[in-house]
Structures are given as C-alpha cells and as structure tokens.
C-alpha cells in the first residue's frame, strides 16, 4: 500500500518539481510524526526512529531496491532545508537509512551523492570524504556538520560579516554553543547564509580601528554625505519648511526674508499635498498621491512615453522596492533570478534570504562590462535545463554598480528582447541614472527601450530609482520609487497589500523623491543657485572618477576600466603567488587578504571584489571615488604605497 503511494510519488517526480515538493511534503507529514522531544540547539533531542524513516523503510521492503526513491527524497528534503533552513530532523532520518538513530559517514557519503553538489560547502564535503573511520554521528553532531555544509562558499567568506565578527574584533575564538533557544541552529538559516559585502568583515575591522583612534578613509559604500558632500540647499530649505510648524515657517512673517520665494511656495504646496496631519503621520501605503504624480510626470518627460501615478510606489529607498518586488516574485526554492556578475549585493542577499536561487550572467570586463545575447541564453539554458530552475526575474543595473559602465541602447535591447522572449520580469535598477561622466554616453531607461523595441510590447518591467545617489546623496532620508509597467493588476494589488503591511514609506523620503523629480525651474528664485550647486558636485565627481581610475592604472599590477558612471572603480589586482598561498593558508580569499592589508597599512576601507562576484581567478576590490578631492588624492598615493609594500612582502 505504502509502496504504491511511494511509487506514485516517484511518478510525479517526472511530472513537475512543484508537484513532488507538494506531494512529498504531504507524504512526509503523513508518515514522519515529529517527536515531541524535538528541540534544536543545546537541548535534548530524540530521534525516535520507530516513528520516523523506519516507518517509511519498513513499508518499502527491500531498501536496496528503493535507493533511487531514497535519493529523490533526500534531494527534495535537502532542497527544502537549503531554502527554508527547516527540516533538519527529517533530513537526519532520511540519511539514517537503517533507522539506527545515529548516522555514519558512509550514510552521509550516500547522501552527498544524491544532492546538488553546488549547495555543499567544500570544506564540509572534505570532512566526510576524508573521514578515516566510520564514526557514528548523533543528531547534534549532524546539525553542526550541516552548519558547515551550508556555510557560504569560501570565495564569499570575507563578505559574511557575522560569521567573522568575533575574529574581526580581534577575538580569536567564536563562542561555540548557546544556552539560548533562539540560536545558530534554530534561527532562520536563510538569514544565516545571507551575505552583504558592502558592510562585511573589512568594514567591521575598519570600525574597530576607528574606535581605537585610527583615521579611516571609508570608500566602501556610496554614501556621499558621510564623506563630505554638502547637501543641496534647495532640498533642505523646502524640507525644513515642510517640517516646521506653520507659525515658525510658512506662516511666519519673517519667512520671505529668510527663504527664496519659490522655496516657500513649494513648501506650501507640499504641505497641502501631505494634508493637515503633517509630516509626522502615516500616509497612503503607496505614497502621497501628489508626489506620485510628480514622479509620473518626470518619467513621462524623460522617456517621452506616458507614465501613470497609479503605477508608482514611493518606497524607503530603492532597497525596499527591490525587496518587495522580489518577495512578490519568489514562490519556491526552484525560483531564481538572473543577476549580473559582478552585482550590487542587495540582490544576492535578498534572493538567499527568500530561499531562492541566483543565476549569474557575466559582464564582460574586456568589453566595457558589456553583455551578449549568447551569454544570457547559455546561462538561462543551464539554469532551466540542467538545474531545473524557473527564472522569474532578470536584474540589470544601469549605470553599473560596482562596474561603473553605462549600458548602450543595444545592450538594453538585447536584455529586453531576451526577457520578453522567455517571459521573464525585468527589474531595472537605475539609481545612478544621473551619474554619467562620459560625454559620449547617454542614459536610456529600460522602459523607454522596451516600449520602442519591436517584440517587447508585453515585457513586464519594474524600474527603481533613489534619492540616495545622483547629485543628491541624501541616503539617510530613504527616498525612492518603483514604477510598474505591464504588471498584472492582481499582482499590483498584492504589492499594494505588501506595502500596506509596512504602513507607508517614510514621509521624509517621499518629500525628497518629489523634490528629486521636480527641482526648481528656470526663472524661479532658487534656480541659479540650485544649478550651480548641482554642477559643482557633478564636475567634481567627474574629475574624481577620472583621477581615481588614472591613479589606479598608474600602479604596476593594478588595472581598472573607466568609470563611465555611478560612484565606483572596480580594479583588478595581479597577486604575487606567495600572497595567493598566504591567503589559501588562512582560508581567506586573496582579495580579502589584500583589502585587509590595505586597511591596516593605510586606513583605506574598500570592499573585496569577491563580495560582488567575479570571474574565477580574478582578484580585485571596489572603491568609491566619493571622498573629497584632496582626500582622494592622498588615498591614490596611499594605494600605490601599499601596493609596493604588499609586493615586497610577498616577493
Ligand atoms: C545599484 C544599487 N541599487 C540600489 C541601491 C540602494 O539604494 P537606496 O536603498 O539607498 O535607495 C544601491 C545603493 O548603493 C545601489 O548601488
């Protein structure tokens, strides 16, 4: 009887992965009765085999004949574990094929043969393969091994701040074991595995050094005001009049002598848009209607194609928009998102937190970080046909972070056609659209290209913009928006529901977004000063983009592509063989070794390139060119001094 239902499951395997996940879930729930003693972490745990897999196997008869089914069950359960961090006990029971209550390395070896190799950390695999005797593992030992097995790839280790936190602070030993019920084993395993390089190990060490009084030049993050960029006066003036009680601000007789007339006028208008509750109250979940209309007007003018306020969501920076859209897109551990490699790591972070998979498409460094249709098709085919994944979305970042390229219209057409052809939702991250320093380059929005490219009429697209970048740099205000284009109205209502669960985005950010998309007009009193302030920032960024790249390229062994846009250079570094050996000896990525050495020697804090993804064998780092010009010049000299010392050290 049970055999029949088991083979029915096996039959369904070939029908669809989803079907098996669902039916297997029900199957396991029916027959694997979780023990009431199941406590994870430090507490007692009973593997009570008579209620677990023994029950399955006893019904299956001769286990040697059902090996393919056990293999399939292990793979499915492993997939579930990887994406949710749950099901550790069931996995243990499925590996314990003789239902002894303990497992052997031999049983784990059998398990390793059945599951996707790319999910298992190499070091954890080695432990199993190199175990000389067939030790019996109890559940707690298995849990500890599982943590190792799902620990991020050593190539990304330097980005995993929390796992290296103690070490970064100079504490050599991680405290093992916890008396808390909410611990390393019981917490969300997706969060445990999530990476975020931009605030990773190097930054934690930099903060520790800063706390000891060392001067640190932070070039790890695109946070302009933190490194000396002045806020643009117009924005701050309007914001302050929106926030101030009317009697101290817009209604005060002195206001006209303290503020330009158009600032006062704009503040009055914005206060009306916000309504009598003022800037301290929740707003509509999608954002204040008038501000969304400002955004829609801006997009219409920019693209020469209509944009509707109803399709705009104001969000807490682009980050919140990206997170909400990915939350709405990802439904299973087979869902995947194509992201550029190198990428801005918010994508990999959210994808892994949601338990989905990333499928990288490589940008071609030798070709200005361009893309080819062939690369996209090959990556998709491998993901779909070899790995059985479903591609839900495709991300482009234009201008690129960390790569700094401005995408050509042709590249955008390739992407739009590719997504339209395969029915993939395109996510266009365009937060650097104003940061273009190459006079021969122009920003084209993905929406404009999609609308104007034959065959892309039905392309589903979400575009993101932010008040954190451009010439504004008001990162802390958390302003931004997303525009939905060709998105199913039902999905749109669900995104509205999701936005509602967060009540609304910050009013500060909403106001900032309205100001970003509707700056003062020619003829208005603030206009001249506004244009001057913007231009000063722009020209300085342009100079810094060039001087940083030129400075890096002047160092023997370092080379960087031109920073056409955005705020970063992403150079590669030729590493002496001895440095590579040293990194391997310390179980570090070579770029982590390099960046840590740079930090300790010079106080310059950059991010190892491996945190963004790069081709195998490449070593490099990402640095912003945001420090003020004098500071940046010093940093360039220091890059050179450090590189020479590094070469001498590892000669
Ligand atoms: C490419 C890209 N997208 C999105 C963001 C998120 O920006 P924010 O959430 O501040 O709008 C950043 C921040 O650096 C970025 O570089």
From TrEMBL:
Extent of the signal sequence: none
Assigned keywords, A-Z: Aminotransferase, Calcium, Pyridoxal phosphate, Transferase
* EF-hand domain mapped to chain residues: 83-118
Stored InterPro entries = ALAT1/2-like (IPR045088), Aminotransferase_I/II_large (IPR004839), EF-hand-dom_pair (IPR011992), EF_Hand_1_Ca_BS (IPR018247), EF_hand_dom (IPR002048), PyrdxlP-dep_Trfase (IPR015424), PyrdxlP-dep_Trfase_major (IPR015421), PyrdxlP-dep_Trfase_small (IPR015422)
Q: Which GO terms describe its molecular function?
A: transaminase activity
Cofactor(s) for this protein? pyridoxal 5'-phosphate
Q: How does it assemble?
A: Homodimer.
Family (UniProt): Belongs to the class-I pyridoxal-phosphate-dependent aminotransferase family. Alanine aminotransferase subfamily.
* Name of this protein: EF-hand domain-containing protein
């Amino acid at each position: 009887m049970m055999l029949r239902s088991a083979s029915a499951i096996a039959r369904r395997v070939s029908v669809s992965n989803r079907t098996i996940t669902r039916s297997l879930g029900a199957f396991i729930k029916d027959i694997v009765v979780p023990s009431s003693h199941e406590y994870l972490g430090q507490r007692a745990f009973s593997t009570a085999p008579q209620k677990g897999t023994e029950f399955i196997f006893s019904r299956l008869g001769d286990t040697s004949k059902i090996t393919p089914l056990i293999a399939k069950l292990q793979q499915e359960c492993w997939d579930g574990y990887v994406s949710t961090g749950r099901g550790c006990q069931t996995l243990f029971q499925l590996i314990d094929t003789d239902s002894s209550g303990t497992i052997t390395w031999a049983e784990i070896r059998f398990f390793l043969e059945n599951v996707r190799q790319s999910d298992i950390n190499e070091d954890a695999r080695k432990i199993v393969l190199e175990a000389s005797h067939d030790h019996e593992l109890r559940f707690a030992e298995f849990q500890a091994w599982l943590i190792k097995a799902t620990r991020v790839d050593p190539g990304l280790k330097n980005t995993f701040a929390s796992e290296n936190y103690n070490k970064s602070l100079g504490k050599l030993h991680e405290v093992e074991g916890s008396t808390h019920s909410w611990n390393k084993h019981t917490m969300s395993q997706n969060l445990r595995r999530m990476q975020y390089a931009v605030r990773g190990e190097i930054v934690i060490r930099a903060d520790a050094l800063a706390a000891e009084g060392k001067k640190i030049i932070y070039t790890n993050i695109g946070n302009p005001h933190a490194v000396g960029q002045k806020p643009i006066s117009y924005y701050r003036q309007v914001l302050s009049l929106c926030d101030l009680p009317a009697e101290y601000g817009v209604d005060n007789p002195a206001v006209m002598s303290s503020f330009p007339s158009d600032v006062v006028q704009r503040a009055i208008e914005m206060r009306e848009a916000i309504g009598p509750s003022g800037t301290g109250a929740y707003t509509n979940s999608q954002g204040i209607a008038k501000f969304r209309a400002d955004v829609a007007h801006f997009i219409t003018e920019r693209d020469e194609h209509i944009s509707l306020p109803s399709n705009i969501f104001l969000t807490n920076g682009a980050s919140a928009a990206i997170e909400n859209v990915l939350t709405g897109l990802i439904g299973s551990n087979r869902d995947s998102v194509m992201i550029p490699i190198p990428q801005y790591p918010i994508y990999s972070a959210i994808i892994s937190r949601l338990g989905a998979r990333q499928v990288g498409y490589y940008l071609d460094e030798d070709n200005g970080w361009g893309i080819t249709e062939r690369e996209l098709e090959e990556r998709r085919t491998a993901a779909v046909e070899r790995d059985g994944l479903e591609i839900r979305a495709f991300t482009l970042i234009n201008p690129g972070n960390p790569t700094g390229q401005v995408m050509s219209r042709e590249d955008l057409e390739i992407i739009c056609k590719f997504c339209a052809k395969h029915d993939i939702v395109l996510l266009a991250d365009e937060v650097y659209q104003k940061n273009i320093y190459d006079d021969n380059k122009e920003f084209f929005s993905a929406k404009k290209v999609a609308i104007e490219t034959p065959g892309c009429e039905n392309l589903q697209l979400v575009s993101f913009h932010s008040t954190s970048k451009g010439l504004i740099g008001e990162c802390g205000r958390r302003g931004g928006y997303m525009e939905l284009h060709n998105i199913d109205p039902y999905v749109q209502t669900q995104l509205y529901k999701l936005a509602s669960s967060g009540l609304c985005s910050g009013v500060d950010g909403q106001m900032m977004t309205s100001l970003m998309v509707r700056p003062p007009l020619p003829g208005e009193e603030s206009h001249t000063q506004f244009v001057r302030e913007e231009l000063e920032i722009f020209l300085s960024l342009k100079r810094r983009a060039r001087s940083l790249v030129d400075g890096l390229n002047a160092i023997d062994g370092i080379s960087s592509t031109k920073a056409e846009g955005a705020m970063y250079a992403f150079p590669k570094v030729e590493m002496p063989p001895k440095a590579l050996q040293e990194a391997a000896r310390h179980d570090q990525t070579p770029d982590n070794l390099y960046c840590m050495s740079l930090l300790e020697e010079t106080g310059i804090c950059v991010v190892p390139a491996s945190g963004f993804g790069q081709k195998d064998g490449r070593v490099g780092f990402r640095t912003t060119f945001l420090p003020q010009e004098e500071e940046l010049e010093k940093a360039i000299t220091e890059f050179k001094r450090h590189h020479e010392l590094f070469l001498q050290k590892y000669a």
